[in-house]
């Protein structure tokens, strides 16, 4: 019989109010993995009330910051102890390589431990005043119940980057994971309870965006929405949160440039370009999907990238030798295939890939694809494809590279490959992106703040800055 999950509310599994469930499938084999609760407004309301009760309870409200840190540390330890189970769970659900998930699960406890260490360093300031008799100080307070809405591409990592600072600051949460990846987030909530967080501090309502996500955003008891997902959904969520004057952190889509200059180590750059776009089958917000190569190294780079793309081992994400798994679900695969067709109609040439690869597995596979003869006005260059598709374009001057790279509505990340230090600094300053990598791609850590510029987001995640997203500042004046 198929495994069946409820929501996780008030520290226990709770059946959906209308009894409805939906299936989650393994995108490599198409087998049904489990059924998750199909949440609707009454489930969301129940979860928010549980989170609000936990937030108001003195056992949580008056818990020392040091103790909150201890709980987060314990959660990090429990995640480490259960790493293999969590890694497999997510790999089965979204088709990410088990190898890669094991890496993410090594980083996740570090993330929780980092915020464990920050919990007792959240503090206000004493502000100078014009009179020695007047005392003015600030207090950094939690917000209340945080609604966290996350996508399917890295559920545990992206949820933890909200949960850890939110709990460190003394909030409680209701999480709405993607309908494609529920199970690992339910497990994370169970581990939070096991770590000692009170029932109701971490709640999960599973289900679809319009049925469960929207009621969460619109719930009057939510003090803040923290969203990671597409720019279209983010824009609707920001409008709803804005109309109620509640805070909103948004991590949205990208169309990041990866720029290779004539003085770069082209072999290294080619590896960086391949990792930039083909990791996780291109389903990462920071995918370097627009590749700009100086005309003098364009042919060499294209050849190296295409050679590597063609040799990528495609197959079962659970196998160690596999380098590229399937796309996470059928509509995602269809969207990628349709973008490539659109590109060809617009005049692009499929240099490599552009089809289903040769594999016996029935899942949603798509070959690593390199498009050439593309221009900056084509849809394949302007819109986020969220799949293993790189558009490669030549440029002649640094100024042109910068102009083309910045000619996008997005501003999440950018890569620069050069041996010229002055150019590296000039490009880092000029690029309109929240993260710039020079001679590397994808480097990140819990300590390093991340912000999407332009249509790629609002607010900061990771690092100390993230604590500000989950606190409010009170100014107290005392006439002594
Ligand atoms: P999505 O916007 O379709 O869904 C994200 C989440 O929002 C899901 O949980 C979904 O159920 C929910 N949702 C959908 N409609 C909603 C609504 N009206 N109200 C409330 N919730 C709603 O995105 P996706 O396809 O799951 O994820 C892929 C996108 O996420 C890509 O655009 C990618 O770039 C982006 N992403 C960004 C980052 C980042 O750090 N900037 C990281 C990962 C993914």
Quick structural summary:
With 480 residues, this protein is an alpha/beta fold.
How would you describe the shape?
Answer: globular
The CATH architecture of the largest domain can be given as 3-Layer(aba) Sandwich
Cα-atom Rg, whole angstroms?
23 Å
Average predicted local confidence, pLDDT: 97
Q: What's the count of strands?
A: 25
Which strand order spans the largest sheet, edge to edge or round the barrel? 15-16-17-14-13-19-20
**CATH fold field value of the largest domain:** Aldehyde Dehydrogenase, Chain A, domain 1
Hetero groups: nicotinamide-adenine-dinucleotide
Tell me the domain tally.
Answer: 2
Output the CATH homologous superfamily of the largest domain. Answer: Aldehyde Dehydrogenase, Chain A, domain 1
Q: Beta-strand level of the residues, as a percent range?
A: 15-25%
**Helix content range of the residues, please?**
40-55%
The low-pLDDT segments are none
Helix count equals 16
Protein structure class = alpha/beta
Largest sheet at a glance?
7 strands, mixed
**Distance linking N and C termini:** 70 Å
Question: What would the keywords be for this entry?
Answer:
480 residues, alpha/beta, 2 domains, six-stranded mixed β-sheet, binds nicotinamide-adenine-dinucleotide, Aldehyde Dehydrogenase, Chain A, domain 1
Describe what this molecule looks like in 3D.
The chain has 480 residues and is an alpha/beta fold. It folds into 2 domains: 4-252 and 456-476, Aldehyde Dehydrogenase, Chain A, domain 1 (3-Layer(aba) Sandwich); 257-438, 3-Layer(aba) Sandwich (Aldehyde Dehydrogenase, Chain A, domain 2). The protein is 41% helix and 22% strand. Strands 15-16-17-14-13-19-20 form a 7-stranded mixed sheet, sandwiched between helices. Helix 10 (266-278) links the parallel strand 13 and strand 14 (290-294). Helix 4 (83-94) packs across helix 5 and helix 5 runs parallel beside helix 6 (155-168). The longest helix is centred in the N-terminal third of the chain and has 21 residues, at 98-118. It is globular and about 70 Å long. Residues 149-153, 158, 176, 178-179, 208-210, 213-214, 217, 228-230, 233, 236-237, 251-254, 285, 384, 386, 412, 452, 456-457 line the site of nicotinamide-adenine-dinucleotide (NAD).
């Amino acid at each position: 019989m198929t495994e069946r999950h409820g929501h996780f509310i008030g520290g226990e599994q709770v059946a959906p109010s209308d009894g409805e469930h939906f299936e989650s499938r393994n995108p490599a084999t198409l087998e049904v993995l489990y059924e998750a609760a199909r949440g609707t407004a009454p489930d969301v309301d129940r979860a928010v009330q549980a989170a609000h009760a936990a937030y108001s309870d003195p056992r949580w409200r008056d818990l020392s910051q040091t103790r909150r840190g201890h709980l987060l540390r314990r959660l990090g330890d429990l995640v480490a102890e259960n790493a293999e189970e969590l890694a497999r769970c997510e790999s089965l659900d979204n088709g990410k390589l088990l190898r890669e998930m094991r890496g993410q699960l090594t980083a996740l406890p570090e993330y929780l431990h980092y915020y464990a260490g920050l919990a007792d360093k959240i503090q206000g300031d004493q502000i100078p005043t014009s009179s020695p008799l007047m005392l003015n100080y600030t207090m950094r307070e939690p917000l209340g119940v945080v609604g966290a809405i996350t996508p399917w591409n890295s559920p545990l990592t992206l949820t933890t980057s909200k949960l850890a600072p939110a709990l460190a600051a003394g909030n409680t949460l209701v999480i709405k994971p993607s309908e494609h990846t529920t199970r690992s987030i339910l497990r994370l909530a169970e581990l939070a309870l096991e770590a000692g967080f009170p029932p109701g501090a971490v709640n999960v309502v599973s289900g679809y965006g319009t049925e469960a996500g929207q009621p969460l955003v619109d719930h009057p008891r939510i003090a803040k929405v923290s969203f990671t997902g597409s720019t279209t959904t983010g824009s609707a969520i920001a409008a709803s949160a804005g109309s109620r004057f509640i805070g909103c952190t948004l991590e949205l889509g990208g169309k990041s440039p990866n720029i290779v200059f004539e003085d770069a180590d082209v072999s290294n750059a080619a590896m960086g370009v391949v990792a930039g776009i083909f990791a996780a089958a291109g389903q990462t917000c920071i995918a370097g999907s627009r590749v700009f190569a100086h005309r003098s190294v364009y042919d060499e780079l294209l050849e190296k990238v295409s050679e590597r793309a063609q040799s990528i081992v495609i197959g079962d994400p659970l196998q160690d030798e596999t380098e590229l798994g399937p796309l996470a679900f059928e509509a995602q695969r269809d969207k990628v295939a349709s973008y490539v067709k659109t590109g060809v109609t617009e005049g692009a040439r499929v240099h490599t890939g552009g089809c289903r690869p040769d594999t016996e597995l029935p899942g949603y596979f798509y070959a690593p694809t390199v498009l050439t003869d593309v221009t900056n006005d084509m849809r394949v260059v302007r819109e986020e494809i969220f799949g293993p598709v790189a558009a490669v374009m030549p440029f002649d001057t640094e100024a042109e590279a910068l102009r083309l790279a910045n000619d996008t509505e997005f501003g999440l990340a950018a890569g620069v490959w050069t041996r010229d230090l002055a150019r590296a600094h000039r490009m880092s300053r000029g690029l309109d992106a929240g993260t710039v990598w020079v001679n590397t791609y994808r480097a990140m850590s819990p300590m390093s703040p991340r912000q999407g510029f332009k249509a790629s987001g609002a607010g900061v995640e990771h690092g100390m800055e993230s604590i500000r997203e989950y606190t409010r500042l009170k100014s107290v004046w005392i006439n002594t």
